[in-house]
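Appendix C reproduces, verbatim, an entry submitted by the partner laboratory led by Prof. M.T., so that reviewers can inspect both the input and the predicted structure.
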Amino acid sequence: MLINDGDTVCIVGGGPGGSACAMTLLREAKRLGRKINVVLLEHKKFAEQRHYNQCIGVLSPPFEEILKNELDLTLPESLVLNEIAGYRLHSDLLSLDLVGEEHGRSASVNRSKFDAFMLEEAQKAGAQVVHNRVTAIEVNPDGVLIYSEGENIKSAVVVGAFGLDDGSCGIFEQGTPYRQPDFLNTVITRLYPGEEFMQSMGLTIHAFLLSHPGLEFGAVTPKGDHISINIAGRKVSSNIMMEFLRSAPVQRFLPPHQRREKPLNYFKGRFPIAPAQNLFGDRYVTIGDSAGLMRPFKGKGINSAIITGIYAARSIMRHGVSKNAFAENFYQDCHELTADLPYGRAVRVLTNLATRFKFMDHMIAVAAERSDFMKAMFSSVSGHDPYKKIIMETAGLSLAFTFAQKILGHFVLRQQAHLPAKSASPAV
């Protein structure tokens, strides 16, 4: 099941992952002296900016190295809305500027324009872009048939780069053993507070870990002329978004004239928190969010999509399109992501427990006192380091003892708060 001269590779989804996959396929084919056809099926027209992408659109390190070293691309400065200068973490009562070592710049971009840039580069490399929606796929021993709203496409292999789009997930689930990954729901809104407020806000991303039922985390991100506000949780909704916006910790970062106004528009999305089941098989492979192959609990989804797209393309061209080839090459290349999954799950569980039992204030207090835990908090929020590294570097008897003291004091105070008040003793 090798790729031969004249074969077609079809990619469903023309976002950064699909575009990176297409470019790498054509580069690998040229290196190997083969001629192949690469077809990108993408129903959106990013250049028209008629669609809103639920991704916040922050490119974090090492995105520039990935683009340059793997795809020979440089991000046009015209796409950068602003650079991100730092991170500030908020709990119910406390706030803390997170201090840590930067490994490169972080930049916010307009996702439609960035996606259009990547798709245009794929076209320049020789990929054919078809703006049709996929309606069904058939995976047969001798090839794949992709049905669309336009023409049918016969290919040697199909790459799923469709994110967590409900329709595309369902089509792949019907046509293959693939099952979409577990996910959290997100709600995003935007506010345009004016130039003066944006300048006063600065270039800091504000992350919120609050004890609000149903809310796992939220963030307020500066993006050029507006701020993007996102929340995530199993059952987040527009109502929970409004409660988030009205909460005291968030109110401080909203313009006064918009603090009590209902946002003009909401966008609903999803992001994965676990790998998909059967994310590859004979003649098909999924990448990025579709595969659930992203940094657990704390994104870097654009980087992960591009990297897994590159890995899938190399595996296809060098080793073929069988399930075994993908397991032995593509999935092994993704080891840095998959190996961090259990640690990411552990951090997510501990974080949710801390917010549920109102312990996050104490964790921020510890980070303010201890440089080792400050570094861990910075790396977790910024996404700079794998969770395994964060846990290994911060796990120790001294830190454990500090937390034991905080936990004991916290629950003693909670217990005292629930005890009935004692009546004053009569004077003797």
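The first helix runs from residue 16 to 32. Additional entries are available on request from the coordinating office.
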